[in-house]
Amino acid sequence: MTTMNNTDPYTIADRVAAHLAAQGISRVFVYPGGTIAPLVNGFERAGVQVEVFKHEQGAAYAALALARLTGQTQVVMVTSGPGVTNVLTPLADAWYDSTPLLLITGQVGTGDLNSGRRVRQLGFQEAPTSDLVRPISKSVCCPMNAEQALAALPRLLADAVNGRPGPVVLDFPMDVQRTVCAEDAELPAVASVLTDANADAAATALIADIATALAAARRPVLLLGQGAVQPGNAQLPAMLQALVARSQALVVTSLPGLAAWDGDDASCLGYIGHTGHAGANRAVHGADLLLVLGARLDVRQTGNLTAQFVPQGRVAWVNNDADELAHPRVKVAWSLHAEVGHTVARLLQQLPASVGAKDTDWQTHCRLDRQADVEDPANPGAIGLAPKAVLRAVARHMAGGRGVVTTGVGSHQQWAARHLRYAPTGWRLLTSGGHGAMGYDLPSAIGAALATPGEPVLCVVGDGSLLMNIQELASLAERGLPVKLLLLNNQRLGIVSQFQRITWGRDPSSGRFATPDFVTIARGFGLQAERVAQAAELDAAVARLWAAPGPVLLEVAIDHDADVVPMLLAGQTMDAMWQGHGA
Prior knowledge:
By secondary structure, the chain is α/β, with parallel strands linked by helices. The chain is globular, with a radius of gyration of 25 Å. The strands form 3 sheets. Strands 2-1-3-4-6-5 form a 6-stranded parallel beta sheet, with helices on both faces. Helix 10 (201-216) crosses helix 15 (340-350). The longest helix is centred in the first third of the chain and has 16 residues, at 146-161. The protein starts with 11 loop residues before the first helix and ends in a 26-residue tail after the last strand. The protein has 3 domains: 12-177, 3-Layer(aba) Sandwich (Rossmann fold); 201-371, Rossmann fold (3-Layer(aba) Sandwich), CATH 3.40.50; 387-557, Thiamin diphosphate (ThDP)-binding fold, Pyr/PP domains (Rossmann fold), CATH 3.40.50. The chain is 38% helix and 16% strand.
């Protein structure tokens, strides 16, 4: 990296870096390259920590973790061309999972961009960044001069957080970055606005209707989505507790909404959907009112028999994305375009002091159904360890603590969601929800550790997902962060293999997935590492994992044939999940 001194000219890149530093950005996530170098140097000049990773995906996923845990927009920088194309996967993750992110991409100079030449490439490593990122970004700007760059930055930052959060992109031509300017070059003041859509008369009447229905319902259930996980709203968990207590409702969550509610609370039935808890799905199926707070009601939550979703009741849907509300997949009785925190506060104001009688027999049955713990029974005669037993062994060390769990995507993701417990003030879960991207796990764990110093981070990962971004073991070792990697190795791309076996009865592509010697690889990167293949060795190995002060990997040889059971398949209602191949 070039070292700057007081004699170096002050540029637009320096001004942008200084402005972001003034907005509270204390670190930026980078995979370096020539066309982004001026801005990297600008952040160094501004006193911002530059976090360099081994791949653009690693840098971006670490930033996404920090953004989701803090609720604050984070900055990722990559160079032009391959830097841009390599970062598209985490950009899509930010888009689908509503994560505020500012992606700054280097770009060739404006002379090339404005040349009008109808050729395939306008310069070395040039790519049509704006065209590539626009469908998965809230807004995009490629400034052609210094004035446009300074005007765009506040607007992009506001777009990232206003309404439904998401990523924005500044495609930054190198000559614009290097334009000399005054240190006090003015940036327009564009404030972030959190609109309270509950304020108008129509919304007030709608909330009153929902409150009345909630009070009268005999079998009410609250569905908490990611919109109910708000790190910037410290009052929301207590407000949700008050709403549940006063309405006498049961609670389910979506997969990304798991940390919105205490998983050990008696009213909690788990998470719903394709790989959710069976008891949670059955409760939704039997509810007479489902109040949805901040979830999308996509196919992985409802199944594809949408006409039979909540067949005995009505749905009230609160979401801060008007487009989602305009295109419901299921029948909705009330839909409210609003932010969850504001809505819960207004519901508490409107909810009658005395609610109607509840179907206590049904509620008791729902709680017992959840306690039956039917998910993922061990296969008789299995050679490897049962995933459920492994995660329960880890959960004993997590009990009563606080930290972050990250996962990749696959069977291990669902097992970690099912068999570990999450809470607003306890363990929080970071995973790739809407985009479902393998490789999210390790770099997100690094970002989580940077965001929560002093707290443990558990990365639950499968053998296939770990290989996607295994190079970030170097980034982890360099920082010595307290990340505990639990590698569940079944030498199988489990959930893909399961789908192929269910659908076609055989698995020609992912049933036998050759894996390397992960322990040797991890040690080569500088981590502590060991492997366990016998049940008698498990508890001691997990204890060592938990006691290790720095980064450590525990590989566990799990049952090759372990499936995610039960599972909600196409053509099934939520009370009739697939029970496994032998059922």
